[in-house]
Amino acid sequence: MLAMKDIGFQVQNGAGSAVTFELPSKGKIAFHRPHPVAKIDPIMLKVFGKSLTRWFGWSWGSFVLA
After folding, report:
1. Helices in 1-66 by DSSP H: which ranges?
2. How far is it, in rounded angstroms, from Cα 5 to Cα 21?
């Protein structure tokens, strides 16, 4: 959640485990927090990445590793 805030998203908790991330000039996307264990499975991480690519046009080249 903090990484999304760092790149300009507004974060809003929704019902249950839903969290909405809004980038004012681009739109918004919702994800569900993992439960019962707060750990994101690598497969789900890939799904999240594909969703971000589809909605915002991002790719691996859009990011800089620090």
Report:
1. 2-6, 42-56
2. 9
Domain at 25, CATH number = 3.30.920
Answer left, alpha or beta for residue 20, where phi above 0 means left and psi between -120 and 50 means alpha.
Answer: beta
pTM to 2 decimals?
0.75
| Residue span of the structural domain in which 33 resides | 2-62
Q: How far apart are CA 12 and CA 52, in angstroms?
A: 17
Span 31-41, pLDDT tens digits: 988 888 888 88
Report the mean per-residue pLDDT for the chain: 86
How many domains does the structure of the chain reveal? 1
Distance between CA atoms of residues 38 and 64, nearest Å: 26
